[in-house]
Design brief:
By secondary structure, the protein is α+β, with helices and mostly antiparallel strands. The chain has helices at residues 7-39, 46-54, 65-79, 93-108, 112-126, 166-169, 181-189, 193-206, 219-231, 236-243, and strands spanning 130-136, 144-150, 155-157, 172-180, 244-245, 250-258.
Length: 267
């Protein structure tokens, strides 16, 4: 018999970890955004730019950084080698060969050179470059494997990760985005009609679309009430800004991906 999962405890733990990662990476992310602005031509501080415009002076930009970054990208692309999985222990040769063929096959499913170059440029400009591998049934009922560039600004890494030993010290990460309610249901409910209906019911309550007179509270007030009860947060405006895009009807979605180790003994 297993203990029943306390979903409120899981949610509170996840939110605490998310806030810690968000606070830890916020200064770095601001610098990363400045780097993207710099390389795309936004090299004037707003106050200086406004001053020049007000005095009818030109705000010229001589962007020497973008050609350098593109040249580095071209050099990396020329020297790039195919990924390969190497055996670690005795008897791993066949498995490593299968993994190597799987990796190369997955890259053949997409525009590998473009996605690799885009992720590499992200690493040059903003310190991090990400690619995402996933299985999709949208193009084929039996499913296809895809590998593509992924927006690095969506990622929040475990603050205890060490750069020199990333693979061993990164215990988890968050992938954050904004989605419409129907997108959330389609993504996470899958083919389970009961879960989809339960999620849609919650969305109707949040958005004030439930026909029951007992559910006459607006979706914004209902959402604030739930979050206040769970997290103890009292600033409604902060909740709206953090978790809901009121004007466009989007919800912030956070996915936590944890590293898990499984040990198998073969007889």
């Amino acid at each position: 018999m297993t203990d029943q999962i306390n979903h409120v405890d899981v949610l509170n733990k996840t939110l605490t970890m998310y806030k810690e990662a968000q606070n830890f990476w916020r200064p770095v992310n601001l610098l990363r955004l400045e780097s993207y602005d710099m390389i795309s031509g936004g090299q004037w501080l707003k106050a200086d730019y406004d001053y020049l415009i007000a005095n009818r002076r030109t705000a010229d930009v001589y962007n020497f950084l973008l050609p350098i970054a593109l040249a580095l990208s071209g050099t990396e692309k020329t020297n790039r080698q195919s990924l390969r999985a190497y055996p670690i222990g005795e008897g791993d040769e066949q498995l490593s060969e299968i993994l190597t063929k799987t990796i190369r096959w997955s890259f053949d499913r997409c525009d590998k050179e473009f996605h690799f170059s885009r992720a590499w440029l992200d690493a040059v400009i903003g310190r991090f470059g990400w690619m995402k591998s996933y299985w999709s049934n949208e193009e084929d009922p039996e499913g296809l494997w895809h590998t593509a560039w992924h927006d690095p600004m969506r990622i929040l890494i475990d603050p205890e990760t060490q750069a020199v030993d990333f693979n061993k010290t990164c215990g988890w990460l968050f992938d954050t985005t904004w989605l419409k309610g129907e997108q959330i249901v389609n993504l996470y409910a899958g083919d389970d009609a009961d879960i989809a209906e339960a999620m849609n019911e919650q969305l109707r309550i949040l958005e004030g679309r439930n026909g029951s007179p007992r559910m006459g509270v607006s979706w914004r007030d209902k959402f604030n009430f739930i979050m206040n009860a769970i997290t103890g947060t009292t600033t409604d405006d902060a909740i709206d800004t953090e978790w809901m895009d009121i004007r466009n009807g989007y919800y912030r979605v956070i996915e936590q991906h944890e590293r898990r180790h499984e040990y198998h003994q073969y007889l």
